[in-house]
């Protein structure tokens, strides 16, 4: 049996294809112009026709046609319904052969179309499901990494300036110093001076703006250095020589790798300070504030400190020095840091030491130069430190001033000195007791009461107490206090005269009855040829005498000095030549012939 | 602008999502149970709702074909592109001109990721994540700026997306921002959900709108006048003006004729 069926003519084939597409498009969306999908549908139809007419008969193409519909995205579930209905009704009409054979073959082919469609639909749905899954995972991961990235960024950058922050700097330093590091490394810590004031002056709302301006100025500067470094680059490592970080607030850090010496870092610091001075700020009350900074520097072998915090600690120390230095830039030095540590330990020990009474006055005799008779003593502070031994003022007075303990210290010394003075008096030794008064004590509104109380309790007559004040620019503002002290009957001496500020003016304005010539002036007298030194001293003494002021020379160490001072008419003197300061109990009393 | 600076919306498959609901409406399979359930609710109100989606999609195809064939546009920025379903912009455009370049932008990360996997082998089409409410981030996105040539005309598509932009987000200025980046001769292709024409239809529409309130992308219905108002003077709205989607340059050659859908309002404008 050859050719049991014969396929139909082209036009009825076209007509059926068009109808099929129309029905498909009615139930499921088929985009675009008709031509292309029609072509596709027609090919499917042809494939079905050849399947039905093929000898031997094959079912396979039916399956392929069903699957192909899905592939063509004519995949709405209703598509298969209309397809089967339409083709069941009209496909047989395309053949004129044995109706039984056609009637048998067409439904079997269509069954395969249905199966192929269903299977492809299932596969597609599952594949899409998997793809959605994957897409979700990808987005989720992408979101996570964006978040992580952002968290990481936030963790490592300052929110105001966007510059690397302390954590970033630490990590960078750790990297640079890992395994002993390579070459040298410079770290410069820049701090805006008086930031809080500047902030106040500009209005707090400008605070962040100010930091941003500073940050971007430094960023520009570093970028310009980087560009230069790149231009002169000898290798890729030169690209990354600079790191700018913002520790928050008014502190910025510059790290430079491959430095040759500390001097190079000083230059970096100076350029940065200069650049910041040109930051344009809004004017305040008609004047334009400038950004001034101090800079601390550490420059050393990269491996010299293994912990990032060690670099930061040392650069902070250097900054502290820089802030106290008019130059504003300081390089870290190990020796000075060690001395600092000692001082800090002392500072920490001081409050307890005051409680335990470890401070006591030593006394240095003051003599009348004419007959070398002891007429008074200057009380000088000593700290009987349980481990460090006897400490002299140079080692702790500054600390006491910085920590604010100076008032308490001054108080206890005053009291002890007056007590000794009163005791000596009761034994018939009339000594003028000289006690130093620190600037912080002058600023104490309770000072006059304290002095009165001490005098009352120790029973030392007020006129036998002489308080020594140092001439500083600030003394002027305490004139009232000084007058009140004089009211008490206490005498005042101007200490360290001749080295400080407006000496002449203070003399006429302050109620002082004694002037103590600075040891430096006395030392100058050692040189017999120094006519100028002699003239200054002579002039000072003359002037004091005109004003009815007594003159005490400090730091007399040699006979020459002594002789010349006597000749110049100086009244009193003290110094190693006569006696070193000693404890109250070992003080040689006036009756004893004084060893010369 | 860094691509990383905007907060990812995250993927929540427990609420219906506009892109997936729309995909389902067009017969797609890139959707979840919530999306299908949501669509069934909409269809209860509007049994013909899928026809609106089709009318909209068919308009999109015609507009793109017209732009490539008749206006010689070969660059497309499709904002609110959704899930790649049938008749995607690149398919239509590249069928006419294989060099046509398309960047798809959507706020939905899954839609973007699915677009990416579909476009894997297509060097002339990309998909990025972006929010129409931050137009600068889209225009200055690395992949946009490096892939599209802004010195030549670009067609920007905002099809069925503007109704997700509430008045508070100032859609007019968003469109202006985008317009500023475009050369004269560039195009805007817009479509928008418009009001029903009968009183009863309006009521049902209001119910449907309330359904959308529960999605991350509530819908604002705007009429033709309001749609025109979203476009500033730097654009000229082309003939036939704002019309129903099926009225816009109908193509007798199109596969299926869809009954008129007055609620899909569309317009095409040219940058002056
Ligand atoms: C209804 S679909 C339209 C898809 C395609 N433009 C169309 O008309 O055939 C809307 C698409 O806009 C997206 N969409 C919603 N708000 C968006 C926004 N603010 N920015 C970008 N895409 C947004 C949705 O995620 C969704 O994929």
From TrEMBL, chain A:
SUPFAM superfamilies, per database record: EAL domain-like, Nucleotide cyclase
InterPro entries: Cyclic-di-GMP_PDE-like, EAL_dom, EAL_sf, GGDEF_dom, Nucleotide_cyclase, Rev_trsase/Diguanyl_cyclase
Signal peptide: none
Location of the EAL domain: 343-595
GGDEF domain residues: 183-335
Transmembrane segments annotated in the record for this chain: none
Keyword field contains Oxidoreductase: no
Protein keywords: Hydrolase, Nucleotidyltransferase, Transferase
This enzyme's EC code(s): 2.7.7.65, 3.1.4.52
Domain of life the protein comes from: Bacteria
GO molecular function, a single term: diguanylate cyclase activity
PROSITE patterns per the UniProt record, alphabetical: EAL, GGDEF
Record flagged with keyword Mitochondrion: no
Protein's recorded name: Bifunctional diguanylate cyclase/phosphodiesterase
Protein species of origin: Actinoplanes sandaracinus
From TrEMBL, chain B:
Molecular function GO terms recorded: methyltransferase activity
Biological process annotations from GO: methylation
Keywords: Methyltransferase, Transferase
InterPro entries: SAM-dependent_MTases_sf, SAM_dep_MeTrfase_SAV2177_type
EC number: 2.1.1.-
Protein name per UniProt: SAM-dependent methyltransferase
């Amino acid at each position: 049996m050859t050719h049991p069926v014969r396929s139909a003519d082209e036009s009825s084939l076209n007509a059926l294809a068009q109808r099929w597409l129309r029905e498909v498009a009615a139930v499921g969306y088929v985009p675009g112009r008709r031509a292309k999908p029609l072509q596709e549908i027609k090919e499917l139809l042809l494939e079905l026709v050849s399947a039905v007419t093929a000898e031997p008969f094959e079912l396979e193409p039916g399956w392929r046609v069903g699957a192909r519909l899905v592939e063509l995205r004519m995949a709405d579930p209703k598509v298969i319904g209309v397809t089967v209905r339409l083709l069941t009704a009209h496909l047989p009409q395309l053949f004129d052969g044995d109706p039984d054979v056609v009637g048998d073959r067409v439904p079997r082919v269509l069954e395969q179309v249905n199966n192929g469609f269903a299977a492809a639909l299932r596969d597609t749905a599952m594949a899409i499901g998997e793809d959605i899954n994957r897409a979700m995972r990808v987005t989720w991961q992408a979101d996570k990494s964006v978040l992580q990235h952002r968290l990481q960024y936030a963790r490592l950058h300052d929110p105001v300036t966007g510059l690397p922050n302390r954590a970033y700097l630490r990590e960078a330093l750790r990297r640079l110093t890992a395994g002993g590091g390579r070459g040298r490394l410079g770290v410069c810590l820049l701090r805006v001076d008086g930031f809080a004031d500047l902030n106040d002056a500009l209005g707090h709302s400008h605070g962040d703006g100010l930091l941003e301006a500073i940050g971007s100025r430094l960023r520009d500067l570093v970028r310009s250095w980087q560009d230069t470094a790149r231009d002169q680059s000898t290798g890729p490592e030169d690209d990354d020589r600079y790191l700018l970080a913002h520790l928050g607030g008014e502190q910025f850090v510059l790290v430079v790798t491959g430095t040759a010496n500390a001097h190079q870092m000083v230059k970096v610091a100076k350029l940065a300070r200069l650049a910041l001075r040109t930051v344009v700020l809004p004017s305040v009350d008609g004047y334009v504030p400038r950004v001034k900074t101090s800079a601390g520097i550490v420059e050393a072998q990269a491996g010299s400190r293994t912990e990032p915090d060690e670099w930061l600690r040392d650069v902070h120390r250097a900054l502290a020095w820089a802030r106290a230095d008019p130059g504003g830039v300081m390089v870290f030095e190990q020796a000075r840091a060690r001395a600092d540590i000692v001082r800090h330990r002392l500072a920490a020990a001081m409050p307890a030491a005051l409680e335990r009474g470890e401070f006591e006055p030593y006394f240095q005799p003051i003599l009348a130069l004419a007959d070398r008779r002891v007429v008074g003593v200057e009380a000088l502070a000593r700290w009987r430190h349980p481990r460090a031994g006897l400490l002299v003022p140079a080692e702790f007075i500054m600390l006491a001033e910085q920590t604010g303990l100076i008032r308490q210290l001054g108080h206890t010394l005053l009291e002890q000195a007056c007590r000794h003075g009163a005791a000596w008096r009761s034994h018939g030794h009339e000594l003028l007791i000289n006690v130093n008064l620190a600037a912080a004590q002058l600023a104490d509104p309770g000072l006059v009461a304290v002095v009165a109380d001490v005098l009352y309790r120790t029973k030392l007559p007020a006129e036998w107490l002489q308080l020594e004040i140092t001439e500083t620019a600030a003394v002027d503002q305490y004139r009232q206090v000084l007058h009140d002290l004089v009211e008490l009957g206490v005498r005042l001496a101007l200490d360290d005269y001749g080295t400080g500020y407006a000496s002449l003016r203070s003399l006429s304005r302050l109620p002082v009855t004694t002037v103590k010539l600075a040891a430096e002036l006395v030392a100058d007298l050692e040189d017999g040829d120094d006519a100028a030194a002699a003239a200054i001293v002579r002039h000072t003494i003359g002037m004091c005498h005109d004003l009815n002021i007594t003159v005490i020379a400090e730091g007399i160490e040699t006979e020459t000095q002594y002789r010349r001072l006597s000749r110049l008419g100086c009244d009193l003197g003290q110094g190693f030549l006569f006696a070193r300061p000693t404890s109250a109990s070992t003080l040689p009393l006036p009756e004893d012939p004084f060893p010369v | 602008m860094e691509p990383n600076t905007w907060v990812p919306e995250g993927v929540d498959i427990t609420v219906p999502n506009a892109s997936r609901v729309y995909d389902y409406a067009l017969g797609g399979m890139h959707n979840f149970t919530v999306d299908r359930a949501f669509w069934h609710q909409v269809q209860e109100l509007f049994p013909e709702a899928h026809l609106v989606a089709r009318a909209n999609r068919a308009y999109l195809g015609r507009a793109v074909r017209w732009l490539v064939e008749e206006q010689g546009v070969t660059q497309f920025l499709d904002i609110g592109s959704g899930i790649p379903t049938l008749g995607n912009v690149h398919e239509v455009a590249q069928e006419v001109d294989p060099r046509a370049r398309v960047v798809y932008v959507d706020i939905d990360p899954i839609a973007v990721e699915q677009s990416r996997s579909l476009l894997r082998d297509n060097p002339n089409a990309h998909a990025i994540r972006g929010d129409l409410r931050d137009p600068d981030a889209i225009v200055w996105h690395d992949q946009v700026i490096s892939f599209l040539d802004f010195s030549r005309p670009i067609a920007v598509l905002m099809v069925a997306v503007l109704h997700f932009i509430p008045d508070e987000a100032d859609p007019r200025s968003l469109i202006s921002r985008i317009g500023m980046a475009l050369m004269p001769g560039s195009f805007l292709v817009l479509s928008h959900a418009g009001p029903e024409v009968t009183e009863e239809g309006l009521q049902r529409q209001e119910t449907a709108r309330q359904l959308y309130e529960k999605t991350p992308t509530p819908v604002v219905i705007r009429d033709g006048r309001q749609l025109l108002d979203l476009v500033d003077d730097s654009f000229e709205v082309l003939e036939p003006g704002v019309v129903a989607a099926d009225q816009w340059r109908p193509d007798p050659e199109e596969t299926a004729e869809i009954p008129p859908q007055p609620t899909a309002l569309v317009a095409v404008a040219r940058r002056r």
